[in-house]
Amino acid sequence: xxxxxxxxxxxxxxxxxxxxxxxxxxxxxxxxxxxxxxxxxxxxxxxxxxxxxxxxxxxxxxxxxxxxxxxxxxxxxxxxxxxxxxxxxxxxxxxxxxxxxxxxxxxxxxxxx
Amino acid sequence: xxxxxxxxxxxxxxxxxxxxxxxxxxxxxxxxxxxxxxxxxxxxxxxxxxxxxxxxxxxxxxxxxxxxxxxxxxxxxxxxxxxxxxxxxxxxxxxxxxxxxxxxxxxxxxxx
Lengths: 113, 112
Hints:
The complex is a heterodimer.
Chain A: E1 4-7, E2 10-13, E3 19-25, E4 31-38, E5 42-51, E6 54-57, E7 64-66, E8 76-78, E9 87-94, E10 103-104, E11 108-112
Parallel strand pairs in A: 2-11
Antiparallel strand pairs in A: 1-3, 3-8, 4-5, 4-9, 5-6, 7-8, 9-10, 9-11
Chain B: E1 4-7, E2 10-14, E3 19-25, E4 32-38, E5 45-51, E6 56-59, E7 62-67, E8 72-77, E9 86-92, E10 101-102, E11 106-111
Parallel strand pairs in B: 2-11
Antiparallel strand pairs in B: 1-3, 3-8, 4-5, 4-9, 6-7, 7-8, 9-10, 9-11
C-alpha cells in the first residue's frame, strides 16, 4: 500500500532541544517537501528537495535543517534556533518537482513544553 | 516567485446551496492549478486540478474554472453537503520553480 508516513504523530520538546521529524514515502517520488501549518497561516514551505542529495530553502527555513540521503526519506530537524516551533508539520511528495500534485503525510504536531 | 491570493477566508452556506472560492495568481507562466481539501485534524488531499491549456474541469459536484487573461481560477461546489465542510487551499506554479505556491485557505462551513 503506497503512501507517505510521518512519525511521530505527536511530539513534545523542551526549550533548547533539537528534535527530528521523520518522513518516509514508498511512492517512488523524486520530490519531497516540508510545510508548517499554523492557525490562519495556511501552508508555509520550510524546505524542499527535488532529487536525492539536493535540497532548497523554502519561505521560512530559519531554525530548521533537512537531509535527503535516500529517495524515500526526508527528515526535518527543528533546532533550538527556531523561536516558535509549536505547530503542525506536514510532509509531502510529488512525482517530480514542478507542476504535479502533492501527496501529503498525516502530519506531526510539535509542542514545546 | 509566484503570489497566490485566496478569497474569501471564511464561507458559510446552507446545505444544498453552491459555494465558490476564488484565487488570483501573479506569474503569467503558471500552468498548473490544484485544489486541496483539509478536514479538521487531517492531511490536505487533492480534490481537483487544472492545467493552463484547459478552461474548465468538472468532477461530479466540483468544478474548477481558469481565466488566464485575468489570472484567476475558481472552485465551484454545487449541492453542498455537511461533509464538504473543511478548509480548501488553492495553489499555482510555473513548472520551472519546482514547487507549489498556496493560497491561505478558505474555511467552508455547510449548515444542515
